[in-house]
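Q: How would the structure tokens look for this protein?
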Amino acid sequence: MRNLVLILLVAASCLVFTIAGHLYWKQNIEATVQTARAEMEASAKEEEKANQTETILARATQLPVAAQNAIKRAVEEHRPIHLVIAGSESTPEKGGWPDLLKQALDEAYGEGTFQITVHEYEGLTTADADRQRIAADWANDKPDLVLLEPFLLNDNGVIVIDDTLDHIESIIGQFKSAAPDAVVILQPPNPIDNATYYPKQVEELEAFAKENGYPYINHWPAWPNHRSEELNKYIDPESDLPTSEGAKRWAEALAEYFIAQ
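A: Here is the predicted structure in token form.
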């Protein structure tokens, strides 16, 4: 009888140990599988981020090097690229080329990659903009890039080009004091029909940008010649502002810089 009880106890103990061992093994296997799955998912996410970073940086290779570096910094910090677009009534906050450029950037880079804010200052000259210290508006947006269309067209016939350039330098200096890591990219306003001095002022703006190391985007080659009647399709001769076709032409010209194929 005692032997039978002993045998039963031994058998029961073996069964308990077997079940316990099986459960322990199963839990360990499940934990190992879960750990491996988590590591694989994390690795896949890191690879996806790396691929996205490479894609974004490859798209930006047509931009000036300083702008590329600003974009790279934003991407590596895993946040949107903050782009401020600022200018005169040639750079409308709604319904103009900035909206069309935003659409192109969203399509090429993915929606939300660029966070864009537009500041339109209707009727301002560079002297007005300098005196009103409008650069503080951009600094408050904490941008990586500022695409600035200075008020050259509004200055035409009002302020001599040397004073215009002095005001532009002052405006950029105000901005850089508040946002030293941001990059300012200069671009001219739109061309106008049969202008005499204005094209020379635009040439002076480009020379000023090169001399002072400011990135510059020249979109004028994308427009018809300023002495051609074809320009009237793109620029309203009454207001000297872009038509819907002109806004499209301007946005497409800028997109060629912002989006490498």
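Residues 175 and 194 are 34 Å apart (CA to CA).

DSSP finds nine helices and four strands in the chain.

Upvote if useful.
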